[in-house]
Each structure stands twice: as C-alpha cells, then as structure tokens.
Specification:
The protein has helices at 3-14, 24-46, 60-77, 82-96, 106-109. With 110 residues, it is mostly helical. It has a single domain, classed as Helix Hairpins. Helix 2 (24-46) runs antiparallel to helix 3.
Length: 110
C-alpha cells in the first residue's frame, strides 16, 4: 500500500465521525503516548526491564503501526502530503549523510 492510499484510508475512517481529527496539540500528546508504549515494549523485549510473568508479550509491529496511524492523522489534519515529505526527507539524508557512515562493499551486498 502506498502512503497516499494510507492517507486516504485514514481520512475515510476519520471522516465518518463528527469529531474529526483532534487538534495538533492533542495529536502530539497521542503520538507521545504511542511512542512511550513502543519504548516500554522494546525495553521489555530487548532492554533491562523484563515483564512480570503474568504480562503477555507485546506486538512491536502493532506499536509501530499505532505510531504510523497517528502520524498519518497528523499529516492529514495539516494537509501534508507524506509521500512528498518522505521524498524530501530522503533527499536531505542522502545529501547530508552520504559520507557519514562506512558504505558496504558492493560485492558483499549481493
């Protein structure tokens, strides 16, 4: 699924509710909450804080998808085309960080 399709699907889902998108500040708070949930799960699975025995293992993919959903809501509410924004940010990284790290040997990549 392309990003524009994700943005459209989220817009259609949100559009069925009178409340619509939350305010930008509320969405930032929600995004922060979701990132915190991801951080908690990563810490449980890979960090120094194991879960209690009765706690189920969380789903990192769903935690990331929650973040993606909120980012899409945020972009939609501000009329931001995420595909365009992503292209621009990749151009920025390609320029800024092109020599920052050690490149893999082409022979090793295949």
């Amino acid at each position: 699924m392309e990003i524009k399709d994700m943005q459209k699907e989220v817009a259609n889902w949100i559009g069925q509710f009178e409340e619509g998108y939350w305010s930008p500040l509320s969405m930032l708070a929600r995004l922060t909450e979701e990132v915190g949930e991801l951080a908690r799960e990563v810490n449980h699975q890979y960090g120094e804080k194991p879960k209690r025995p009765e706690e189920p293992i969380g789903d990192l993919a769903l935690e990331l998808a929650d973040i993606l959903f909120i980012v899409i809501c945020y972009a939609n509410s501000l009329n931001i085309d995420l595909e365009d924004a992503f292209k621009r940010v990749m151009a920025k990284y390609r320029y800024r960080d092109s020599n920052r790290w050690t490149k893999k040997d082409d022979a090793l990549q295949s």
